[in-house]
Hints:
The complex is a heterodimer. In chain A, the strands form 2 sheets. Chain A has a 5-stranded parallel sheet. Helices cover 39% and strands 14% of the residues of chain A. Chain A folds into 2 domains: 155 residues, Aspartate/ornithine carbamoyltransferase (Rossmann fold, 3-Layer(aba) Sandwich); 151 residues, Aspartate/ornithine carbamoyltransferase (Rossmann fold), CATH 3.40.50.1370. By secondary structure, chain A is α/β, with parallel strands linked by helices. The two termini of chain A are 12 Å apart. Chain A is globular and about 55 Å long. Chain B is α/β, with parallel strands linked by helices. In chain B, strand 9, helix 4 and strand 10 form a beta-alpha-beta unit. In chain B, helix 7 runs parallel beside helix 9.
Amino acid sequence: MRHLLSAGDLSRDEAHLILDTAEEMRSLADRPIKKLPALRGRTVVNLFFEDSTRTRISFEAAAKRLSADVINFSAKGSSVSKGESLKDTALTLQAMGADGVVCRHGSSGAPHLLATSGWMTGSVVNAGDGTHEHPTQALLDAFTMRRHLGALEGRRITIVGDVLHSRVARSNVLLLSTLGAEVTVVAPPTLLPVDMSSWPCATSYDFDSTLAKSDAVMMLRVQRERMNDAYFPSAREYARRYGLDVHRMAQLPDDAIVLHPGPMNRGMEISAEVADSTRSVIVEQVTNGVAVRMAVLYLLLSGSNETTTEEQTA
Amino acid sequence: MSSYLITGAKIVGGEVADVLIDNGEIVAIGTNLETPEDIETIDAKGLIALPGLVDLHTHLREPGREDAETVLTGTRAAALGGFTAGFAMANTDPVADTAGVVEQVWRLGRDAGYADVYPIGAVTVGRKGTQLAELGAMADSAAHVRVFSDDGDCVWDAALMRRALEYVKAFDGVIAQHAQEPRLTQGAQMNEGALSGVLGLTGWPSVAEEAIIARDILLNAHVGSKLHICHLSTKGSVEIVRAAKRRGLEVTAEVTPHHLMLTEDLAASYNPVFKVNPPLRTKEDVEAVREGLADGTIDIVATDHAPHPVEDKDCEWSAAAFGMLGLETALSVVQHAMIDTGLMTWADLADRMSYRPAAIGQVSEHGRPLEAGAPANLVLVDPAAERTVVPGESASLSRNTPFDGMTLPGKVVATFLRGTATVLDGKLAR
């Protein structure tokens, strides 16, 4: 692995390696000294073109626990017309000697461009790009599910919400199918891409029919403003048809868990009772996020046995 | 003005003959021609002589974006591509929506001297789609405008489109529509389909083009005017135009070289050099537009040459400008897509890239068959040559060619504009 741009780029072995490494990183959290010297002397830049305090803090904590030097670079207004271009930012990071760049950007493909344009040589981690992907979110979701459900092979996972605009959904569908899970995405037809024939998952418009056969349910954030573009008639109707409330939760199998990438719209896609219930692993997802991101940074930047000669010189 | 004797050229790909050019005209075509003493002879053995190409859809960017292209650099690129005439789109700054601006562009073209420039006038004031521009004033101006377009934006208001079509009947004008339903394409970045969903790029659905084309054909049938469809790109559009023509409805249509060759999967690179409007479509669409061009459903090839400065393409996809260079590669791409595949002959190519665009644009100086007495607007092409496209070698000020690094067949050896060589030995002649 040189970069982490898409969850679809990971083989099953690579995905397992990250998750197993994250398991080791997770155990650190229970020790008195939570820090490893693995990335001492390495520089990780958190390059955030979009506000995302939780993701940035998670990456920052991950890099610091690995003893990397962390630079937070918040650059709102990314396009040529609005300010400094992505290219100039990349050239600046290159000049400063960034070993790893964690990039959050509103434009789909921006991390891909950073990795392939030749503007910089550091490893690029996609921390969410437009409506494309958010691979570390998918990894932390898989990690969390694995801790509760065991191996994900054959497990039935239902992802509900604004799939059309969700980078979380895209990365999860790709990663979970790589890990052998059976994924179903559920949404009103307006919030699904018009042609999903190439997606390795099933689709449904009927949330209720999927409940009894779900080992995990992942609720996606749905912006209320979507109703202004006629994606659905009202927040109430959305919540009635696609929201997870206690009634629906009761129809899940006994051991099923509920996930949400946050931030939640309580009362919209998920009711407060469900979010705070014992089935909910939402707070745990946040904890696991640090461990998973430590694993990703460690594997990309430490020059471990996974790194080839070419990658070390790059 | 020099005289030339072109020897041994295949006339429009057919019989081999010599062409005598003098005083801006083709004096004779044949063998053993009587020639003046001081004549310059060009050995055209193995070359094809075509009528000078006519591009009905070019963005020359002047006035306003002289950092991307000027009339001079754009017409140089045109000459190198075998064009002797080009229609300059109206989306300049200021917009070509008054007699003053179209006359300025027309004069710049005359001064440059590499190709005749025919300005296209905007349909609406500022291309805003709300109020008709002074179409009559542009028609009556020295630029003699006959083609009107808000290209870049669709004349989406059906009532306004109807009035525009009606109004230009008074001076035999044509409305060239950029067919794009705006509400269906808000924020659109690439063709809508399986790939756009995977890449997370907002889709530009085929139906947004097809719905406007269908509507405008019916509007035009109602008012009896002239409608031209810019850069048609989908299979469904071809079917609609084909059905309309079968019913005897008046409509003409163009396809770009890039839509004849490139497909949407190039967007997976997130390299904005492949970002264009309408977007690159699927393989099925490419096959359909090729078929449509071959059977005459699509009347012409027009480049939609759209220069952009480096910084507008060297950025993230959604921030990048739409558009691709086209003038210098058009002939090669059409040879590759249509002739080398056996879908068209060189005579068909002359029809689609010279005769018919000139007829739609209503210029009599261009698009004439190669025969004695016609203006000496012609191009010599080496169909056996191959070349690799190198952006830095372009005569355009911009570098945004999607054919970067591709090897394409055919090479323009010489171009003559009214008997004057604008290109000789594949290089600008002056």
